[in-house]
Write a structure and sequence with these properties.
about 240 residues; 9-stranded mixed beta sheet; alpha+beta
Length: about 240
């Protein structure tokens, strides 16, 4: 993966992300396998202006899947790299993610896990350090709050502009985003687009939208973060 800060790569990736998101906003029917691939919530995310704690380049990306087979078992990590892309997509679809426009067979031996979380790595831009409490960390959510959407082929980048939407992401205990008063008390919908074959981690953050208070998760009994949300409410809304 090119190191963050290599100007040519960052500029190119940023321009591709901006262009892909613009095409998605004006021609959403190019994505998925029908004319209803995007809900109104998705369209609101696609049309949300940029936030200042993300650079929209190769520094913020879908990084890993953490999966636990049984309550007492270890929690191994599968990194969502180019090499592991197909495996990771099959893992999350087998554990509740939606898939539109992809051929992702769920094999009989595919395991359903007791607990699985997907982690989006966030690096706050250098220009915002100090203004944002926190520098780096993860926003995480569950496979059943994911949607994988096949996209159109782009001649310039030589890549299918496939997309992933992850709903209700929250700051994980790993890293310093959990210390941010701007990020940690909220839930976030995240749009990721694959616009290049160059990064080792190909799914880059193209959009993010506030989807409500972290404490709202206390109303979702199927979400394993519910207890943390209840506890945060007792602490005055801080995770």
């Amino acid at each position: 993966m090119a190191q963050p800060g290599q100007a040519n790569n960052v500029i190119n990736v940023h321009a591709l992300l901006v262009r892909a998101k613009e095409v998605m906003a004006t021609n959403p029917d190019l994505w998925g396998d029908n004319h209803q691939s995007f809900s109104q919530r998705d369209l609101d995310l696609i049309n949300t202006p940029p936030v200042d704690f993300i650079a929209y380049d190769d520094t913020s990306f879908l990084m890993k899947v953490v999966h636990q087979l049984r309550p007492e078992s270890l929690t191994p990590t599968t990194r969502w790299t180019k090499t592991n892309d197909q495996r990771c997509k099959e893992l999350v679809v087998a554990n509740g993610a939606q898939s539109q426009g992809f051929f992702l067979p769920v094999y009989p031996y595919t395991r359903r896990y007791h607990d699985m979380k997907v982690h989006v790595r966030i690096l706050v831009p250098q220009t915002r350090l100090g203004a944002i409490s926190g520098t780096t960390g993860f926003l995480w959510s569950m496979p059943d709050k994911m949607k994988l959407i096949g996209g159109p082929y782009d001649l310039t980048s030589g890549t299918n502009w496939d997309a992933i939407i992850i709903y209700d992401c929250t700051a994980s205990p790993e890293g310093t985003l959990q210390l941010s008063f701007d990020i940690a008390p909220r839930k976030w919908d995240v749009l990721l687009i694959r616009v290049s074959e160059n990064p080792d981690y190909p799914w880059l953050v193209a959009g993010i939208r506030d989807s409500g208070s972290f404490a709202d998760l206390r109303h979702d009994p199927s979400d394993p973060r519910q207890q943390r949300a209840l506890e945060s409410l007792e602490r005055g809304g801080r995770p």
